[in-house]
Write a structure and sequence with these properties.
By secondary structure, the chain is mostly helical. The protein has helices spanning 3-28, 33-40, 44-50, 59-68. The chain has one domain (3-68): 434 Repressor (Amino-terminal Domain) (Orthogonal Bundle), CATH 1.10.260.
Length: 89
């Protein structure tokens, strides 16, 4: 895998993770989609795309979503494990 392919795979995985977390938070939130959209200053149609699109969220949008769903936003950088590493069981 080339470095560009590896980075593209990492980005895809991150977007999927963020998308699924946003969908879960929105479903567990007590805010209606309309109220949520209003609070974020977004159109309701854009809010529904949060759960389905593979978009590049700004940090501000993530913080806004976290604030209105009462969740903190945390970014962790985790060391990659080389493919040839054998893990002890």
């Amino acid at each position: 895998m080339t470095p560009e392919e590896a980075k593209a795979a990492m980005l895809k995985k991150l977007k999927e993770n963020v998308k699924s977390q946003i969908a879960a938070m929105m479903e567990s939130s007590e805010l209606s989609q309309g109220k949520f959209a209003s609070d974020l200053g977004k159109a309701p149609s854009e809010i529904s795309r949060f759960k389905t699109d593979n978009r590049n969220y700004t940090l501000k949008t993530l913080v806004d979503i976290g604030y209105f769903t009462k969740h903190d936003v945390v970014v962790n950088f985790i060391p990659l494990i080389p493919a040839n590493t054998i893990l002890a069981v």
